[in-house]
Amino acid sequence: LFIFCMLIGLAYSNNAAACTAINSLPFAITTPGQYCLTSDLQSSAANGIQISIGASNVTLNLGGFSLKCIAGQNAIMGSQSVSNVSIENGSVRDCNYAVALSACTSCSVKNINAINNAVGISVGGFAAIVEHNQIRNDNPNSGTSILVNANASLIDGDHISGSITGIFNRGKGNIFRGNSFSMCQTAMRLDVRATYQDNLTQLCSTT
């Protein structure tokens, strides 16, 4: 039993050490690895990016904490060509872009609560996964909840409430499955042909 407890403690210590803590903003991720929040954070800068991602093979775990913006800020943004980036488990609110990955291959955004942002989640590149997120705008006449410029991607199981456009697709070969929309102007706008299945709408002007 003693040896077992020691092994559990060692594993916990190694996992904790493997996560680079983000304690203040702005923060630039420039090397591969695991990054995590240790508390709720808000930048004091008037504009700019709170957390920028400029490396591949990165996991950013918000750990249930929140990022809050002031006017003109983008919360989490990757503007370079990267791959294998995962953003998960936390809240982002009151930002221009909550999460934006503009040129990412095999990247994912999961379990994010995006509240009152101009754009909730934006993905570009190839083979993105956006799943099990909640995107909410208290003003139904503002914002795009999920903007998809990526190709061959899956948007699955997201709940979207209160927005001008719930999902705006401009990528090729994408699948939209099991998403729900409420109190929106347009639930899904498909500027490029896509496959959609088992999506639900309620109180949206245009399905």
What features would you highlight for this structure?
21-stranded parallel sheet, 21 strands, 58% strand, mainly beta, 207 residues
Describe the protein.
The chain has one helix at residues 2-18, and strands at 19-22, 27-29, 33-37, 41-42, 48-53, 58-61, 66-68, 73-83, 85-93, 97-105, 108-115, 119-126, 129-131, 134-136, 144-148, 154-156, 159-169, 175-177, 180-190, 195-197, 200-206. The protein has a 21-stranded parallel sheet that branches. Mean pLDDT is 91; it is low at 10-16. The chain is built from one helix and 21 strands. The radius of gyration is 18 Å and the shape is globular. With 207 residues, it is mostly beta strands.
Please summarize what this structure is:
The protein has 1 helix and 21 strands.
The termini sit apart by 58 Å
Contiguous low-pLDDT stretches (5 residues minimum) are 10-16
In total, the number of strands is 21
Radius of gyration: 18 Å
Strand content: over 45%
Mean pLDDT: 91
How many H/I helical runs? 1
Shape: globular
What is the topological layout?
Layout: H1 2-18, E1 19-22, E2 27-29, E3 33-37, E4 41-42, E5 48-53, E6 58-61, E7 66-68, E8 73-83, E9 85-93, E10 97-105, E11 108-115, E12 119-126, E13 129-131, E14 134-136, E15 144-148, E16 154-156, E17 159-169, E18 175-177, E19 180-190, E20 195-197, E21 200-206
Parallel strand pairs: 1-3, 2-5, 3-6, 4-7, 5-8, 6-9, 7-9, 8-10, 9-11, 10-12, 11-13, 11-14, 12-15, 13-16, 14-17, 15-17, 16-18, 17-19, 18-20, 19-21
